Amino acid sequence: MTAAPKQDLYNPIDTIEYLFARDNVACDRRGENELVAEILGKWDNMLIFFAYEEHLRCLHLSCLLNMQSTSFDRSKMFELLALLNENLWLGHFSYWSEQKMPIFKHSLILQDNEELFTGKICKIIELAVMECERVYPIFNAVMQQNIDPNQAMYAGNIM
Question: What rounded mean pLDDT belongs to the chain?
Fold first, then answer.
């Protein structure tokens, strides 16, 4: 199979940067294909990272939950991640070992004629923030209070 010829020079990061500027959200363009924005959340601010891979025409979003703990049982974290992810339709939660923080991730393959991109990316950002806010108290209970993941989930009534 031969590679498709390079399409136009459209970069979705340009659109995302415009959307954040329009909504007065602080963002930082870290390169041609990367952007980070800080979103005011219900529990704490969240950092949302965007990376665009031109060759794959893939846009990746990562939303970092700002909580850190160095003294918790990592097996509980992985149990919690499994419990949370089994009910998600889009995206998934992961644990960023380097930063010792939970993170929500989602990737989007872009089409050649991405006419509805603005609405789609706004919805994905909304979903990421909503999911992170929904589970923040649960991650906090497991990471900060050493509560069992099943108990934390039931206490949060999200199962």
Answer: 86
